[in-house]
Design goal:
single chain, 440 residues, alpha/beta, Urease, subunit C, domain 1, TIM Barrel, seven-stranded mixed β-sheet, binds zinc ion
Length: 440
């Protein structure tokens, strides 16, 4: 009976979101009267026009669009001096996870229930402008399934690079993994199994791995053409970078020596600063949002606080990680936006705000959410910047995020693969925040 109810819910859910995308049904879409932040590192381009053809950016030019009479299949959108930038990426997500989980939903949650929550999380992220996600540890290959569903166009969702479950030794991630892969042969097999099941990135819980296991994981993933990353802290981080890993997650207590080696070797870094908050930083952010008129919703503010407090660290530790981020950026390490917790949209924004509060420039922060992500994932030739010939994954804002990073919240339109996303379509009668199970 319980199963039947779950499948009924799934079908209902499928029908409900069918209409989420609003296809413009035009061969060409002209976005005019806009400013472009292309995220190549170039300056803001003012008073621009962009022409989309199908799913691509066909042309970018200066000035307002001048219509010609022979253009029957053209939709012209006046962006009213809005700001066009590449769609955002959240590079550290666990789509079905809950942190915190005050109602203990995760303890005995079924796969269909986790799958539905994961899909809604990803789709909510798209409506916030996150046209790309990297999943770095997920149960039951739920991330792989949603990636394929979105790619096939069955639902409107972001592009996903999916890891499936992290590769871990037994007792990895401080005992979280009860039964993992031990020894070189098992580690190689674990990487190959994920590849076989459709994963297109590999995540390691490497802290508890021995040196030969780390090297085997990296060699095997690279032989299959997969990039890999690891949850790590020192001294694990240094040896991972030395062994040729592509990216580091968290990098707790990362050393200056490691930062220098990452800069030299081109290793990417997802610092997940919002996993290292203290009460002072949370209050600072909330007061900034209130000053902008964006913090009025008491419920959302209180749940934001709750999520963040779940990961609270000492003020000294929080400060150390922020200084490490700044040092990494100054040393030339390519950094990435990753939120760890869900919802992936709101927490992705918060991570971007934390970058700027840590002393990183707004432009570098925007590139950490766009260009750098595409580069790490090997798709920079198609995505990650606003340039002619690239796929039209775009975020359009009312206000300039280079003036205040919190303007990243002033979403006007989102395009994924040339299609305009309906930002208003509700999930149901519940709010997205109901997922958390409101604290009593
Ligand atoms: Zn994580």
């Amino acid at each position: 009976m319980k199963r039947a109810k779950e499948y009924f819910t799934l079908i209902l859910f499928l029908l409900t979101v069918m209409a989420l995308f609003q296809n413009l049904h035009a061969q060409k879409t002209v976005l005019t009267n806009c400013n472009i932040i292309d995220c190549t590192g170039a300056k803001l381009q003012k008073n621009m026009t962009m022409i989309l053809e199908g799913n691509k950016i066909q042309e970018i030019k200066k000035g307002l669009y001048a219509s010609d009479s022979t253009s029957e299949d053209i939709t012209v959108i006046d962006l009213e001096n809005g700001y066009v930038m590449p769609g955002l990426w959240n590079m550290h997500t666990h789509l079905s996870d809950l942190l915190p989980d005050p109602k203990n939903i995760l303890i005995d949650e079924s796969a269909p229930s986790a799958t539905i929550r994961a899909g809604l999380n990803a789709m909510d992220g798209l409506r916030h402008g996150f046209t790309g996600l990297r999943s770095v540890h997920e149960r039951d290959y739920i991330d792989v399934e949603w990636r394929d569903i979105f790619d096939r166009g069955l639902f409107p969702g972001p592009r996903i690079f999916a890891s499936g479950a992290a590769v871990s030794p037994t007792g990895g991630h401080r005992g979280l993994v009860a039964k993992g892969s031990d020894g070189v042969a098992e580690i190689r097999k674990a990487v190959r199994e994920r590849f076989q099941n459709g994963a297109n990135v590999i995540k390691l819980f490497s802290v508890e791995m021995l040196q030969d296991e780390v090297e085997a994981a990296i060699e095997t993933a690279h032989s299959l053409g997969l990039t890999l990353t690891a949850h790590s802290r020192e001294p694990d981080t240094y040896r991972l970078v030395e062994a040729g890993i592509d990216c580091i997650e968290h990098g707790y207590n990362i050393s200056d020596e490691t930062i220098a080696l990452m800069a030299k070797k081109g290793t990417f870094y997802t610092p997940t600063i919002i996993c290292n908050l203290s009460a002072g930083y949370i209050n600072e952010r909330e007061s900034r949002l209130r000053a902008m008129g964006l913090g009025d919703d008491e419920e959302i503010a209180s749940i934001r606080m709750l999520i963040n407090m779940a990961d609270e660290r000492s003020p000294e530790f929080a400060l150390y990680q922020r200084q490490a981020l700044k040092k990494a950026v100054d040393a030339g390490v390519k950094v990435l936006i990753g939120s760890d917790s869900m919802p992936v949209g709101e927490l992705g924004f918060m991570e971007m705000e934390q970058f700027v509060l840590s002393g990183v420039s707004e432009m570098t922060t925007l590139m950490a959410a766009t260009r750098n992500c595409a580069e790490l994932l090997g798709v920079l030739d198609e995505l990650g910047t606003v340039e002619e010939g690239k796929l039209a994954d775009l975020l359009i804002l009312d206000k300039n995020p280079l003036e205040n990073i919190s303007n990243i919240r002033t979403t006007k339109m989102v395009f994924k693969n040339g299609v305009s996303v309906n930002l208003d379509y509700p999930n149901g009668t519940a709010t997205f925040w109901d997922y958390f199970g409101k604290p009593e």
